[in-house]
Every structure is written in C-alpha cells, then in structure tokens.
Amino acid sequence: MIDVRGLTMRYGRTVAVDGLTFSVRPGLVTGFLGPNGAGKSTTMRAVLGLEVPAGGEALVDGRSYASLRRPMRTMGALLDAGAVHGGRTARDHLRCLARSNGIGAGRVDEVLGQVGLTDVAGRRIGGFSLGMKQRLGIAAALLGDPAVLMFDEPLNGLDPEGIRWIRDLLRALAAEGRTVLLSSHLMNELALTADHVVVIGRGKLIADTAIGELAGRFRRDVLVRAADPERLAGVLRAHGATVTPEEAPPGPPARDPSVRGLSVRGLDAEVIGELALGAGVALRELTPRGASLEEAFMELTEDSVEYGAHTGTEQGR
Amino acid sequence: MTDAIAAEWHKLRSLRSNAYLLAVSLLAVLACAGVAYLIGRGFDRQTFEERLGFTGVGAGLGTGLPIAYVVFGTLGALTITAEHATGLIRTSLAAVPRRQVFLFAKVPGLAAVTLVAGQVLAFAMHGAAQAVLGSRADQLLLDGGTLGTSLAEPGVLASVAVSGLSMTAAALVGLGAGAAIRSTSGTLVALVLVFLVLPVAAQALPSPLRAQVGSYLLENLPAQVAGVGGLLPPVAAAALLAGHVAVALAAGATVTALKGRRLRPLLAGAAAVLLTALTAVLPTVLPAAGLSPGMPAEPAVAPASGDAGGAASALAWRPCADKDAPGDLRCASVEVPLDWHKPAGRTITVPVAMLPASGAGRRIGVLFSVPGGPGGSGIDDLKQHHARFAKLRDRFDVVSLAPRNTAVPGGPLPYACLSTGPWITLPGDRAEWAELARANREHAERCRAADPELFDHMDSASVARDIEAVRVALGEPRLSFLANSYGGHPAEAYARLFPARVRAMVLDGAADHQEPVAATEPALYARLERQLVRFAAWCRADTACALHGRDVAGVWRRLVTAADRKPVPVRGDPSGAAYSGFDLKVAAGPSFVSPGREPEVPRWVQLAAAIEKAEGGDASGFADYVRQATGSAKVPSAAGQNMTHCLDGKGYGSYAAFREALREAERVSPHFAGQRSWWPLACAGWPAPVTNPPAPLPAWGLPPLLGVGSWTDHDEVARAVRRVPGSSSLRYEGHGHTLYLSGPGGCVTAHVNRYLISLRLPPPGATCPGAG
What we know:
The complex is a heterodimer of chains A (317) and B (772).
Chain A (H helix, E strand, L loop, with lengths): L1 E10 L2 E11 L4 E5 L6 H8 L7 E6 L14 E4 L11 H11 L4 H10 L15 H13 L5 E5 L7 H16 L3 E6 L2 H5 L4 E6 L2 E7 H7 L3 E6 L2 H10 L3 E4 L16 E4 L3 H11 L3 E7 L3 H9 L7 H8 L1
Parallel strand pairs in A: 3-7, 3-8, 5-6, 6-7
Antiparallel strand pairs in A: 1-2, 1-4, 8-9, 10-12, 10-13, 11-12
Helix pairs in contact in A: 2-3, 3-4, 8-9
Chain B lengths: L1 H12 L2 H9 L1 H19 L3 H5 L11 H23 L1 H8 L3 H6 L1 H28 L22 H26 L2 H20 L5 H6 L6 H5 L8 H27 L2 H28 L27 E2 L10 E8 L9 E9 L9 E6 L7 H8 L10 E6 L13 H4 L11 H19 L3 H4 L4 H15 L4 E6 L3 H10 L4 E7 L8 H25 L10 H14 L2 E2 L8 E2 L1 H13 L8 H14 L4 H11 L8 H7 L9 H14 L9 H4 L24 E4 L4 H8 L6 E5 L6 H4 L4 H12 L8 E2 L4
Parallel strand pairs in B: 4-5, 4-6, 6-7, 7-10, 10-11, 11-12
Antiparallel strand pairs in B: 1-2, 2-3, 3-5, 8-9
C-alpha cells in the first residue's frame, strides 16, 4: 500500500509535484502515467525518501520509507537501472544491498535465478546490456521479498521478449497480493499490464481509475452508415446532434453513399436507431466508438504537456 | 547500523580497483627508498665534518608520507564520490535511506582496511629507507640526531606506527572531503593541495615560521605524537590528528545533510564536532606556536611559557645593555641571600642572561651553562660562544649567570687585589710552611677587608644555591647543565644539593670535586708526564722545536733539578726574580698541556725556546710570557681564584698532608713532582673556613651524566661521572679544554646535543677524532 497525500515537491521556484493525492492498492498492478516531466519520478523519489517534500507526505504501509529499519523488506524499488557501479559483479552488487538490509546471501542467488541472471552473476555490471541492467534492478527490488514494489519505466530498452517477461512477472506479483506500481510515459505499455492507472500531468492528478473505465469515459461518438446519409444527418441535426461526415476512403469515389459514414456526437446509439427508424432510413451500421487508451491519454494530458512541440516553435520565432 | 556497515565493507572489498589503488601506495615505499638513496650517495661524497651537518631523515617516512596520504585519501574519497559518479548512490540510499548512517557506515570498513594497510605501508617505508641508508643511518649529526633512526631508538616505533595510523586519518579525510565535494576530480585536487602542495609551500617559509606552520601539517603529526620532533606536545598533536578527521567528516556530514534538507540537527552536530575539536586543540597549540619564548617581537617575554610544567618566569628579561652582546641575548638578575644559611639576611644581586629558544622545535626547557674559572662569567661565555648553541636553541633556552665569585673590575672586592697574590713556594719545613701561610693570609686579608662577609661566602655550593634561585625564578621544574671546567664544582654541588632538579648534566673538562685534592693529584701528574712525551715526540719531528734532535725529557729533568739547587735568574728583571725548579714546572705546566693551535703549536715553540734559554742560565723565556699574562715575573697565586678554591677545600689542610702528597708525587712524576701543589699550597693560612669540601656525587637520584674531555682532561671527567650509574664519557683525540664552547665543534657538539636533547649517551669508550 502506497499512500501519497497532498504531496508537493519544489525545486527552487519550480513546483514539480503539486498537492498530489492517490493510493496504490495491493493485489493490482497500478500504472503511473504521465508525459515526460509530469512529476512521476519525483513522486517516486519522494516515496523512497530521496527527496524531502515541501508539503504533504508519501507513506509506505502507513510509514515514511526513511523511518523503516530494513526498508527493502517492506518495499522494493527500481528507479534507475543505471545506478550501479560497473566495477562490481552482479552478485556482489546484490550482496552489498542484501547486507545493508540484513538479507542472506541465499536470497541473492534466488532473485538472480528469478530474473534469469544466474549465468552472468559473476560478471561485472559494466559489460551488461540495458536489458540485463533492468533485470538486475528488478532483482534488487525483489531482494527483500517486499509486499510493495515500485518500478520507474522498467520496460525501457527491453526487447519484446523482455517486455513480456516483465508483464508476466508484474502480474504474477500482483496476483500474490502485492502492491505493484510502475510508471510509464506510454499508455500502450500499460494497457496490457495495468489494472488501474494513476495519470498525472504538470504535477497534478488527472485521473485515478480502473483501466477499463478510463477508455469508457472517453467514448466519443457513434459511427453511422446509412442508405441515405444526407437525410439522416438532417434528422439528427434537428435533434441537436453534431454530425460530421467521415473521411472518404482513398481511391475513386464510391457509388454507394453508405460507404461514407457519419460521426455523430450528442446522441446515444439507441436514440439514433429510433430516429432512423422514424425517418425510414435504413441503417447499415450503428457503432458507438470509445477512445483508444492512447487517445484518451493524449486527450487527458493535452493541456499538461510540458515540452510540447508548440514550445519549440515559440522559441524558434 | 551494523547492516549498513557490513554492506559498506562488502562494497569496499568487492571492487578490484580498490586493491589496485592500495597497490599504488607502494609508490610511497619507492619514494622513501629513492630519497634515502640520494641522501646516502650525497653523504658518501662528504668529509666527516660535512656529514655532521646533514639533516636527519628521522624514521625515513618523510617523502613517502604525502604520497601515501594522497593514495589513501583517494581510496576514502572514491568510496563516496564513485557512488555519486555512477549514480549508485540512489540505489544505496534506497537501501539505507538515512544519509548520515549511510555516510558513517563507510567509516569502519575504510578504517579497518587502512589501519592494516597503513601499518604495513609505514613499516615497509621505514624498512626501505633504513635498508638503503644501511650503516650510514647511525651517523650522528650536529642537531643531536642520527641520519636515520632504527626502530630500536626511543619513539621511533611509535612514530612509525602512528604514521601508519595517520594514513587511516588521510583516508577518512578523503571520505569527508569526498562527501562534501561529491566530485571525484574535485576531491582529488583538494587532496593533492592539502597533502602535497601545502607542505611544499610551508617549506618555503622563513624559520621559525616554517617549523611552526609545519608542525600543524598531517605529515608531521605522527612524529610529534611520538614525541620525536616538531613543536607540538604529543597530546596536542594527537588531538590535531583526530581534528583533521573530525573536521573533514563534519564537513562531509554537513553537506550530506544539506542535500537531504534535514538541516538543523545536523548543522548543530557538525558545529559541536568542530567546537570540540577546536577546544581540544587550541589551548595546547596556541601557546606552543605563538607565544614561544624569546620571539624577536616580544622582548620581555618570559622564557618558560607554553611548556608543560613550566610556570611563568618571575624574571624581568630585557635586552642586554652590552653592545658586544648578540642581539637576542636577554638580561635579568636575581636577588639571593649572601649567606644561604641566613636566608632573611643580607642579599646580593646575581646577573643572569639568556639566549632564548629559536622556536623552531619543541622546547625542552633550560640549558644552564655553568662558567669555569673560578671567577669566569657565564654571561661572557654566552656572548662569546653563542654560535655554539645554535642547534641546541631549537629545543632550549640557554641561560647562564655571572656568579657571585666573578672577578671583575668595579665589583665589591678590589679587582687589583683579586687578580694577583703571592708567589707560591714549595715549603721545605714547617717554618717555611708557616711563612707561606702568613704571606697567603696577609694578601687574602687585604682583599677581604672591603667586604669580609662576601669574601667568606665565595664557595661553589653558594653558587649552586644561586643557580637554584635562578631555576625557581625561571619557573622551570628541572635544569639541564653544561658545566665548563671549574664550573664542574658548582654543578657537582648542585647535583648533591638538588639531584631531583637535574634533567641532564654535561661535565666538559670539568674538574672533579668528589675526592680530597691529594687523591686527585696522581692522575693530574700522569697527564703532565704524557704531555711531556707528546712534547718530546713533536720536538723529534719538528725542526721548529729549539730542542729538536735532543733528549727532551732528559734536558727538562736536568734543568729543573739544577734549578731547585740553584734558581735560574731572570736576566734584566729589576726585582731580581729567579726561577726554582718548582717555579719552572708551574710556569711550564699550562704550556705543556695546551700547545696552542695545531699544527703550528706556538706555545710549544715558545716553551722549547724558554727551556733552551733557561738551560743557558736565563729564565726570561718563561718570565716574559708569564709577565705578559699576569704582570708579574713569576706566576702569582690569584686571590680571586683562591677565595673559591680554599672554601671548596682545595687545600691540603696541614703541613703533614702536603708532605705526604709531595712524597707520592715524587714517586709517580719524575719530571713534574710538586707542580700540582701550587694550587693547594695557596690555601695554607687562608682566613675563611672550608664550607664546601669535596664529596662524592649521590649514587642514585641523578640521571646518567655525560663527561666530555680531551687528551688532557678526559680522565678527570671520566672519573667524575663514573659514580653515577649509566653515565658515559666521550674522549676527544686531541688537545683542548671546554670543548663544547671552544673546541673544534662537529663530533663533540653532535654527541653533547644528542645527550642534552634526547638523553642518549655515547657508548663506553666513544671517541671523537682530533681535528687536522
């Protein structure tokens, strides 16, 4: 269980995190989503006690991380797979961490096996690929067999096989009843992994919801294909709907007018069907359309993108 | 915390680069060996005297230490800066979120590794330097040290061990600096500045500032902790060593805390550490550095300040009025009872003078130079021979006095009377003895009349008590002594009266005052007989001798025997003086003993000519140089000396005792029998009683003494020191008297300085080669 309550983080005059409140519950994989610079990493650093908040608090199982005697047994975290000394072997790196939290050497070999690094355990980390380093970082997070796990962009730099491995691992960890939080700036990465998602932008909470709900909330329009689109459009407009013809498919104009669909907003599919029946227009298709997760995310965070392309043009002027 | 310490320990040993870094510290061993090699090579090309002027390398760690510090400091710095550089620190802090715990958990592992490695390295450095120096290491130097010092020497084992320990300090300083600076390169620059550049810069300072600044540098602290060098007392040096670490770690902890923004408690902690370090160090350090005695800018400063146990001096030191005095000579005076048995009675003023310590070394205390004569002034000795004390003054204030029996014009007793006296004759019967006593008394009474009470308290024991009064006024717990010639009498009196106040005592050509005068005579006759042999050998070898090619001993024996029957007249002397055999022996004695500058030996040339002339019936060859020195045709027995001699019990006591001594002299000394009686005979009829008779030195309660003597006075000093267990004597293979003040310097100076500074005596039978 991770509780972030009214968390505010400042760097000089910049407010990186602004009164953020959310909880991460056990048994689920929670995605922590936001564009670059939204404050995800800062929030996670605050949870680990690496940064001291200007306001609010971030608690792990009801306590501040820094006050835990053997914190790795309560929460495991992977913030930066590159935060290692290249001169040490993987096993030595893990042993150092294990000792600092009173964890036995046997556990080191266990997690090395769990992440598939047993064969290279005696090699120096300096020669590891990014993927191997991610696995090593995950191994470090697992060392203390913690009930809470937190990963910052763990899928970065992984090949598809690696990504699948992590997804399976995270789901399995959540299935064991653990609290799992992973951050990403790409919704697609989370779509197949997360049960729940916390979205932030410019340091503020935008959404805290189940992943299915998120897509639903952004149901956008209804696609209608009708034998007489012109007439139907007139009827629907008369009932207050906004009707936009769909883009024509490429190639020469089709003879069948129903090929060109209508995007209808402001009326439910049910109402559209009844109005069509009343008007005697035959319907070929009636499809309520939701936003893709990615689209939903883009829309949600449109206003909060810190380094959008427009800033570049402004600077270019 | 234990978990964190175990983790840091594993971190330290799991990096191969740390082992490589420790291996690099072997450079320090190479540096020590290299410097020792260069010194040894330079040393081999020098003459014996030039070698004495070398500066010792101590335990031999000097040049290697800064290198070792940089390496160990880097090791310490890397344990934290590498975490910053690689980003590992984020992982580490996630594992150990408490930053101070994280930082200080690095200390035990680092300390453990560097404690072991530091000891290995320090002893390797010492061993390498000593091995390269080889037998040259034992070469004695003018400053009293040796070129190298083996572990068997006092303080060296401790010095090397503390040097090893100081490498741990360097590593922890590196850790603290690394935590404060956080960048590897920045920390390395800082370490190089502190450990390499700063000492070099300090070397460029003028003395004694160089020594004062140098004594605060890490590389010079180990020797000071071991008490074998520098200015700081061991406790202050140890505190400063710990202070280096405390300050660096406090800085590191402060910056670490700042980063974590939990400021207040840690700033307070850091401030507390700093304050503790300062209060521990400052009181002991400040006086030693700034207020050392006799700094040129502080003319009236007391001599004993700043040294443990030394109370403030009650003497009002001021520049000496004298124009021929060296600029830094300080003068003062003490009031003492004229009669020490009546402490509340009349007092006299005794002038004292001091050559203050240079401030370039840790002050040991006061060296008291006791003048000879009797009648000589120790203040004159300091004026004339101040250069002789140059090295010693790095460790001592050199103090002396013009004793109460100093014979100077303008004193309370008429100088004209003190500087002369009757001609002593060898009494042939009781009537002649009585006549001699009458003449002696008559002259003594003439001198005594001006101040009888003073005249009756001129013994060496009173001078010794005056010296004790000076010690009390100086506030010194103990004194070290250099007793010159007759200065041995007050020095020995002091040793009998106040043995616990004697730290060290050098008897340099000092006459023995432990046996009745008759008992000392055989050795003194033997000396004269030996000198006759040397004189004869010179005559055989050198055509400058008027008796060249003749049987010199035979000529001398026939001359004195004939003169005893019929005195040899001094041609042209208006008083009609004539030299008996006894007169000839008395006049010739000093010339036999002291040939003058070699190889010209002017006094032997003069003596040979005088003997030849006397053979021809004219004693004016002797009378001429006697008159030049004394204004009299024959040697007068000066009351100024006898007023002390006779009170010191240097007379025979009775006619019978004299006859007995003379019979013994005739048995042991065919060529000089009777000559030694000239001094005791002057006390026959003396008006003041013996108050300081000869007595043996106490067999215990005194530190081992050092006797120093030449061909002509070594036997006497060896005899004087032998009663005190552990004592030793040094023999200079040549002519001379009061060698430390006026000898050729070099070897004798080195041995005496070594004894006075470190209380180390030369081995039995030690000699110094003669000059030229």
